[in-house]
Amino acid sequence: MSQFSETQMAEFKRLVSRYPEGKQKSALLPVLHLAQNSFGGWLSEKTLDYVAELLNITPIEVYEVATFYSMYNLKPVGKYMFEVCQTGPCMISGSDNIIQYIQDKLGIKPGETTPDGLFTLKTVECLGACGYAPMMQLGKTYREHLTKDKVDAIIAECKSIAAE
Amino acid sequence: MGVKLLLEKAHVEGIRTYAVYRKEGGYRSVEKALQQMGPEAIVEEVKKSGLRGRGGAGFPAGMKWSFIAKPEGVPRHLVCNADESEPGTFKDRYLMENIPHLLIEGLIVASFALGSNDTYIYIRGEYAWIVDILETAIEEAKANGFLGKNILGSGFDCNIHVQRGAGAYICGEETALIESLEGKRGNPRIKPPFPAIQGLWQRPTVVNNVETLAAVVPIINMGGEEYAKIGVGRSTGTKLISACGNINKPGVYEIDMTISVEEFIYADEYCGGIANGKRLKACIPGGSSVPILPANLLLKTAKGETRYMNYESLSDGGFATGSMMGSGGFIVLDEDQCIVKNTYTLARFYRHESCGQCSPCREGTGWMEKILYKIEMGKGRKSDIDLLWDIQRKIEGNTICPLGDAAAWPVAAAIRHFRDEFEWHVLNQDQAQKRNYGLAHYAEPIYVPAG
Amino acid sequence: MSEQPLLKVTIDNITIEVPAGTTILHAARKIGGEVAPPAMCYYSKLEGSGGKCRTCLVEVSKGSEKDPRPMPKLVASCRTTVMDGMEVKNITSEKVIDARNGVVEFLLLNHPLDCPVCDQAGECHLQDLSYNHGKAGTRYEFQRRTFKKHNLGEHIQLHMTRCILCYRCVFTADQLTKKREHGVLDRGDHAEIATFIEKNLDNEFIGNVIDVCPVGALTDKTFRFKNRVWFLKPMDAHRNCPTCSGKVTLWNRGEEVFRVTARKDQWGEVEDWICNTCRFETKNASDWVIEGPRMIDRHSVISQGHYAGNIGTHVPTETFEAVNHGRQPQLLMDIHDVSKVNKPGSSLAKLKGPAHSKDFNNNQD
């Protein structure tokens, strides 16, 4: 079973230390982010149980939270996840075309991962970048003012990083 | 050029760093507040300023602060609501990204006023890179004696922690935010008790929006009375508006609430007019949950008066002919946009974001989405429009938290003002699949700039 | 010690005095069943419950003597405490009836309506609620929600499609058992009661989730499809149980014990929690000391709306009809419009023995 490395454990301790004694459960959301980043971009059942053990709470408390929030992936995802916003302001700025273009380009539908495990396409609801629409989240940052050319460039960029 | 209190220095080279921010006059309000004023005086000053909560509800901030309970021996907390998730709203992100120290400065002053030794910033999980920006700013403030123990020799200790959410619009509701901060599902609490009495870990808590807390800085620096002189009526100070949609210059603008909606849309200083030479069809002036207004009612009130960008004027006419300032998310739709589709995507958003706790919201949001999808796909009937109206009416006001209202209002307003477009959709189903309805039936919506 | 001051509250024109801290719902229950709002999620014995289903919404037409302003929105009566001089409208308020009809429609929207094969039928609170408020048809024309099936072990059957997400079973597991193993997963309209990783629920006292469930989402597997509740004779019984009070209701047919439940009060709430052994594994009549027939106010379709009995010391003498211009309480849909047999005079409570068709004939005009 995967466990946190020493640096990850130090980060875990820093997160827990921000809350009063006995309120360590408050660290659950940040710790789940840490676990997701540490163990391949998703949270397995084992990981969830591990987090419950670390925080000394019952597993169901972790399951309830992990299934509530949309950023936690409970199934394996591709190395690069294109999370394209499709809510009102992005829609009126042409996000439908961008989503369609990515689908055609990668040959996958929203919610699917390419066979090589490199890309996952996900349609999401408002990410707070309405003025820079259409946009998507890729890893830790946003890619904004998307055009077909930009999408091509992003895909090429991901492929070249993966090839290294 | 209007007055700028928050973003005046936002574009100074290197303003993200402590050194530049300090050189530009940063952290003066902390010095003034902690060394010359007491907590009560600060609350008084904020009350005098007339500052209203910038998160959407517009509740007077000073009054909210004065409600906080102060039981002996129980710690109190200030929580900054940076869970900006209302479609159309991205002003807090802009502020935190560009001038993070302004928020930290406001937080220190507010923490001192409320007696919060551990203050939390709850930021939406997707703004991951901003967490780093804020944590760096906090470290810098600490290294320079503005955070930590005995700040500026005042005896006041304060630490600020940044907590990331994980994708849930509902956590922008203050009690859901508190639940989430406690490591739970973001289910809003049933009120009372209010957070000011029992909030985070059952301790007295104040939750304020990013912009509200940043506005504390100019209020302390210039005095509440001076601040209140900016703006008009009960809309005091400046407001950040995030403009998006079919305009030439989407972005975040700081306005002093005396400008007209017309000026805001067409002036080069702000939105710069409708993109691609199109005509204005409609606008959602305060974030996706507030009522959409057709061009005629947006630029003028029902009484024929000019509509201004402030709390009172935007809500003039109530929901029948007006809208709301909300969170300042200004979404502009041009003549090529389909109101049905726009309403559908918003209904889908609210269905996706309902926590599922109370029945009207859990079931009603999904039902509205399905009917709107049906109409959008050319399968609707005329009776579906009345059904939608009845559903939204039964959700509104009957839910635990305002998400129910937020889901009901856009549907209600779209039907109220654009019923002809809905009917066209269900009566001309083939046409509706091929083209958009265009402008609505109302009197000449084409804007001709004066002069 | 000074005596606690009593607060005066008026509900549907009936006035009662209650101690400070009493909720509107409890004040209404104290007056009597006729004005008590229905509660699908609130459970007085479970801390933190209530506020979610919105069926108990009432209109506060006068806030208090001090601040007579009405409350702007309908409030959840289960979580709103009374103020002195407060005036509340329950079924005398058009707004309340309208909103409650809406809530009932929402609760039924994705409900499978599989009452004919549901073990809860006959004692189901959603059935009662629909009967009183619902419309005969539905305006929902989409596919109803379904869920992946979860197995909770040999004692408890979960039918997620019937669930109304009242959270009572979650509070029960939190407050009665050592470790909660099920909870509410996911969110919004696909939120569900589940264990996430397939798990048997067998903590001592977990069986009580069956009794608190207002619908047929959690039922007793040892009683599954064995009988309809209205064919069974409820008997109070007890035994010397090392774990719980041992005070139960047996549901018998002849000598045979079909199921064991906790004893429930007139609001359908458990009086004493019982252990799993009593509930699931003690099904011989000889295991029990029979006390006598259980007087049951069946809050159910089979004897709708005839609550009786006192729960406070002082109960107002006014009747709902007397102070509301002869209007009949409870029947908001008025079944008499559509049914030939259920004439207003035909009350099951007034019958001496089991009901036969001629009983209804006698009551007909």
Please characterize this protein's 3D structure.
The complex is a heterotrimer of chains A (164), B (451) and C (365). Chain A has helices at residues 6-16, 28-38, 45-55, 59-68, 88-92, 95-106, 148-163; strands spanning 80-85, 119-124, 136-138, 141-143. Chain A has 164 residues and is α+β, with helices and mostly antiparallel strands. Chain A has 2 domains: 6-68, Orthogonal Bundle (Arc Repressor Mutant, subunit A), CATH 1.10.10; 80-163, Glutaredoxin, CATH 3.40.30. Chain A has a 4-stranded mixed sheet with strand order 2-1-3-4, covered by helices on one side. In chain A, α1 (6-16) packs antiparallel against α2 (28-38), α2 (28-38) crosses α3 and α3 crosses α4. Chain A is elongated, with a radius of gyration of 18 Å. The two termini of chain A are 28 Å apart. Helix content of chain B is 43%, strand content 12%. By secondary structure, chain B is an alpha/beta fold. Chain B has helices at 18-23, 28-36, 39-49, 61-66, 91-98, 100-114, 128-143, 174-181, 210-222, 224-229, 261-266, 295-299, 311-314, 318-321, 339-353, 359-376, 382-395, 403-427, 429-434, and strands spanning 77-82, 118-123, 159-164, 205-209, 231-232, 235-236, 239-245, 251-255, 280-284, 293-294, 329-334. Chain B is globular, with a radius of gyration of 22 Å. The model of chain B is unreliable at 443-449 (pLDDT under 50). With 365 residues, chain C is of the alpha+beta class. Chain C folds into 3 domains: 1-140 and 303-333, Ubiquitin-like (UB roll) (Roll); 145-225, Alpha-Beta Plaits; 228-299, no CATH class. In chain C, 18% of the residues lie in helices and 17% in strands. Chain C has helices spanning 24-31, 94-109, 125-133, 168-176, 208-212, 276-281, 320-323, 357-363, and strands at residues 6-11, 14-19, 57-62, 75-76, 86-89, 156-158, 183-185, 192-194, 218-220, 233-238, 247-253, 256-262, 289-293. In chain C, a hairpin with a 2-residue loop joins β11 and β12. Chain C is globular and about 55 Å long. At the A-C interface, α4 of A face β7 of C.
